[in-house]
Amino acid sequence: MRNFLKIILFLSLFFSFSYAQKVYRLKMATTWTSTQSPLFDTALHMAKLAQELSNGELKIRVDASNKHKAPFGVLDMVKGGQYDLAHTASYYWKGKDIATLPFTSMPFGLTAPEQYAWFYEGGGLELMQKIYAKHKILSFPGGNTGVQMGGWFRKEIKSLDDLKGLKMRIPGFAGEIMAKLGVQVTNIAGGELYTSLERHTIDALEWVGPSMDINMGFHKVAPYYYTGWHEPASEMQFIVNKRVFDKLPKHLQIVLTSAMKLAAYDMYIQNYDMNATAWQKMKKEYPNIQVKTFPKKVMDAMKKANKELRAEMSAKSPEIKEVLDSQDAYMKKIREWSKMSDYLYLKDNI
Q1: Where are its TM segments located (predicted)?
Q2: Domain locations in the chain as residue ranges
Q3: Residue ranges for the binding site?
Q4: CATH of domain 23-144+232-274
Q5: For the whole model, what pTM was predicted?
């Protein structure tokens, strides 16, 4: 009898372990520090959604850049297998692969709703997977900042001459455009920006928008706040090691992609509200802030430089030409509706 009970106990333990739910544990790196809201929040939110939607089968550990110490190394870390996925932005990889640049945002390009439509209905997502396939990585939209502001300036920009010799922090493709117009472009670490602006090391800088600018304090030392042109729809990205993704059961692949899609749009909503809230606080506490739009001659020169630089890139890379052509074609289609709907509604009601 005693031996029989032992057998029953053994079998019950065996079957309980056999049918226990398997948990898939992944590691995600971010380009952001743990204090960079809503960017880091979005990575955490996605991990939480994935765990909840999978009923605990999928658990993702999120490491901020102040832990892994390589904010702009996450692509290589995911590619190499040190991390399974990452939350970052595609235009950081233009030095490795210029065709990755347009998946974040392009000057004078698509707005956030237009860009989401391009990704999910206009072939943008398929193009992104094609570009990233050679890196053995899958890439998905990861949250949008909407239109980013054109920057904080110590002095008003009245003409092209005011840009010549101006020292400005503005990275990426927008920086190349500004450099073509005579700006002395520099890239300074985020933690040094306020001091650099305050001490006249730089004359102007571009960051994001009120939601993220307010904590940096730029509005305290540079009263001219220019409207955006260079990043009308800055989309972050989730990147996933393809080998890791392919090993997940099909239902968990669906859970993961669904969690990424939901977290991405949640970031857009959150950041839109944060911008509005932060702007109300800024203008109340610092009524000397002047919102400005670059003069037409300056904007025309920016557009001309943008067109020339895009042509140069396209001539060198058939892949980026394919992406840019796709965005241009989709914008031609959707912009007419954007004008009929949002633009004319706002124009007639402001």
Answers
A1: none
A2: 23-144+232-274
A3: 148, 169, 206-207, 231
A4: 3.40.190.170
A5: 0.91
